[in-house]
Specification:
This protein is α/β, with parallel strands linked by helices. The chain has ten helices and twelve strands. It has helices spanning 15-22, 65-76, 94-102, 121-127, 129-137, 152-165, 181-189, 221-224, 238-248, 297-304; strands spanning 2-9, 30-35, 52-56, 83-87, 107-117, 141-145, 170-172, 226-231, 254-259, 265-271, 274-280, 287-292. Strands 3-2-4-1-5-6-7 form a seven-stranded parallel β-sheet, sandwiched between helices. Helix 6 (152-165) links the parallel strand 6 (141-145) and strand 7 (170-172). The radius of gyration is 19 Å and the shape is globular.
Length: 305
C-alpha cells in the first residue's frame, strides 16, 4: 500500500515551497509526481538532488485521468515507493485527482490539502471560481501563504470565504515555513477519512460534476487558460529582467522561467503582483512559461527573445 499526499493549490499559491518544507521531515521512500499545465516543467531543479520525481507535462492531470496519471501510477507501483506526493497543476481540480486515487486499492489517500494565496484568494474565488473553489472544497486542510503581508482584517475575510466553501476544514494562517515539518504532517493528515464509503462519492461517470451543480458546464483547464512557452537565448541582467516582468505582470495569471545571465542563471516567477527573481544553477536550455486567459504571444516573444 502506497500512502498518497496531494498538495493542490491555484496558480502561484506556493505548492513547491510547501513540499520542500514537508520533505525536511521524516517521510521515507518518497516519489513526487509533478504536473504542469501545458508541456513545460522547470521546477524539478528546485528540489534536493536524490528525490525521485515523475513529471507529467502533457497537460493538466485532471484532463488526462484515463491516460497519463493512471499510467504513471502503474509504473510507480512497480518501484519501492512507500509515500507518494502529487503536486497537480495550479488549474487542476482536486476532486478529480482524488477520484483516481480513491478508486485504486493499492493507494491510501492520507492527505489532500490546498495551498491558498491569501493575497489573491478573494479575486481567484471571484474570477476563477470553478477551479479555485473545487480545490478548497476538496481539501482536508488549507494552508494560507503570504499571510505575513496582510493585516488581520484581510486574513479574517479570506478565512470567512473559505469557511463558506468548506466549513469543516483545518486552516493554517500562520507562516508555515516557521513550523516544524512534523507539525505540518500532523496538520495535513488530520480529518482524513479512509473508509470505503468515500469511494462511492467518486464514481468515474460523476467526476465532471463532483462539487458542482449538475446543470453547470464542466470546463477543462485548456478551455479557460492558455500556456505560451518558448526558449530564449537573451542574456538578462537582473534589473532588465525585472523591468520586462513588471511590464507584463497584469497580462498573466502566472509566469515562471529560467534565463541566461552574466553569472548564474536567473530563475523568476510571477504570481499576482509578486515578482520573484533569484540566481540558480541550471544546465538545461533557458525557457520561459506564461499562463493566462488572453495572452499575446507576439508581444511576449518580443520582450523575452
Amino acid at each position: 500500500m502506497i500512502n498518497v499526499y496531494i498538495v493542490s493549490g491555484f496558480l502561484g499559491s506556493g505548492k513547491t515551497t510547501f513540499i520542500k518544507q514537508l520533505l525536511k521531515g521524516d517521510l521515507k521512500d518518497v516519489l513526487l509526481i509533478e504536473n504542469e499545465f501545458g508541456e513545460t516543467s522547470i521546477d524539478a531543479h528546485l528540489f534536493a538532488k536524490g528525490l525521485r520525481i515523475k513529471e507529467i507535462n502533457s497537460g493538466c492531470i485532471c484532463c488526462s485521468l484515463k491516460g497519463d496519471l493512471k499510467d504513471a501510477l502503474a509504473e510507480i507501483k512497480k518501484l519501492d515507493v512507500k509515500n507518494l506526493i502529487i503536486e497537480p497543476s495550479g488549474v487542476g481540480k482536486l476532486s478529480e485527482i482524488m477520484a483516481v486515487i480513491l478508486m485504486d486499492d493499492d493507494l491510501r489517500l492520507k492527505s489532500h490539502i490546498c495551498m491558498v494565496d491569501a493575497k489573491k484568494a478573494l479575486a481567484y474565488h471571484r474570477n476563477f471560481k470553478e477551479f479555485f473553489d473545487d480545490q478548497v472544497i476538496g481539501a482536508n486542510a488549507l494552508i494560507l501563504s503570504k499571510t505575513e503581508e496582510l493585516d488581520d482584517e484581510k486574513i479574517t475575510s479570506v478565512v470567512a470565504m473559505l469557511k463558506e466553501l468548506n466549513d469543516e476544514v483545518n486552516i493554517l494562517t500562520r507562516p508555515y515555513l516557521k513550523k516544524d515539518p512534523h507539525e505540518l504532517m500532523e496538520l495535513i493528515s488530520e480529518n482524513t477519512c479512509e473508509c470505503e464509503c468515500c469511494v462511492g462519492c467518486f464514481e468515474e461517470d460523476d467526476i465532471a460534476h463532483l462539487h458542482h451543480d449538475h446543470d453547470h458546464h464542466h470546463h477543462h483547464a485548456d478551455e479557460i487558460f492558455s500556456e505560451i512557452s518558448f526558449k530564449t537565448e537573451h542574456i538578462f541582467t537582473k534589473e532588465e529582467l525585472f523591468r520586462s516582468l513588471a511590464a507584463i505582470k497584469d497580462e498573466v495569471v502566472r509566469a515562471k522561467g529560467i534565463v541566461k545571465s552574466d553569472k548564474l542563471s536567473l530563475y523568476f516567477d510571477i504570481s499576482g503582483d509578486d515578482i520573484n527573481i533569484y540566481r540558480a544553477a541550471y544546465d538545461k536550455e533557458p525557457i520561459v512559461v506564461f499562463i493566462g486567459t488572453d495572452l499575446d504571444e507576439t508581444s511576449l516573444k518580443e520582450r523575452f527573445s
